[in-house]
Amino acid sequence: MELSARQPPALNQHRQQQQQQVATADENSLACFSRSEVLSKIIMYWCSNNNNSIGGRVINMIRSPQMHEESGKRCYMILLGINYMCLFLGSVSSSLLSKFYFIHKGGSRWVSTWVQCAGFPLLIFPIYFFKISTNRNPFTGFTPRILCLSILIGFFMGVNNLLFSWGNSYLPVSTNSLVLSTQLAFTLITSVIIVKQKITFANLNCVILLTLSSVLLALGSSHDKPTGLTKAKYFKGFFSTVGAGLLFALYLPIMEKIYKKVHCYAMVVEMQLVMEMAATVLATAGMAAGGGFTEMKTESTEVFDLGPKAYWLTVWFNVVTWQLCFMGTAGMVFLTTSLTGGVCMTALMGINVLGGVLVYGDHFGRLKAVSTLLCVWGFGSYIYGIYTKMKDKNEDEEEEEKQTENSKEGKKMNSSDGEANKVMELEEIVTHNA
What we know:
Layout: H1 2-35, H2 54-59, H3 65-103, H4 109-114, H5 124-133, H6 144-170, H7 173-180, H8 183-194, H9 201-220, H10 231-259, H11 265-290, H12 292-303, H13 308-335, H14 338-360, H15 366-433
């Protein structure tokens, strides 16, 4: 009777210890899963509820956190590479096509504004791809707040596009590049204020080098001055360019803060679609009020020296490349930070110069060569800073995992010792009763 009275408490205590060990293991698994920040940035994993889809199968890998983390990091790097390629191709191509447009006597500010946002229907294709690849319906998770913010920021982008076009049409290329070179410094300041971006030696060094690179680039293009530039047009173009740089430097960290509440990359594309639609509505209304459509028709038939067919091809290719540029920028901000997006865009100014040299035979003097070297140096230092930060983070995570494993082994040894002691106690009780 004494044996039966003492055995159930011992068994219950043993079961409680087993349950605590299982709960601790589950918590460690979930902690390992949540530590992998990149996994929340993948296109379809978090957005899928279908266990038979790709996303559902990957979500089920939570029971194997190491495999999940490795797969997530690989997909993250692929997605990051795709977005940077979109930004790279879009920025370089739009720059070359815009120059092609102005070389052949195109010069409408409204057309230049409209092409920057009119390519929003192209975003339907990736949205449809996400739908057939996962079980997520488009615009799932869109709250009225996110919708209103997307529309407001779309109008914000429309104003920025207009200011950029005005500055580009009024100012010389050198002055325009010089003023825009301050954009990255503005981005660093607004990122510190809005998203609490930490200032490190790597990002501060990169901002200084890229800004200096842009200044030298402007000085190397001082001979590019439009004819008939009056003082009134100069100041109008100057303040328009300053306004465009400030607005875009404000836009990047604001989007980073909003993206922190966005669950997946598919929502980023959907938000971009809404924003571009709003910007297009604003640009279309401005074109209708300012006679932009009539100007476009006249320009295609009477002004553009390559004829209407070449004109419309230039316009529509410009629409596509600008959409690639903006979608790549949005993806970079979502996957990394607003400062990284600004750094990547500024670094591409040097690539745009090389593109002009290769395609149009632009003069490549000493200042442009030094500017390109500074651009590569600044961008390389920033990438190296990110690499060292990720390396230190991985080492910390590995050390945490080792500590977790050691604590697990210690608990197992303690539990086995406890069980052995209980067995000895039970043997003593049985011997005593006998």
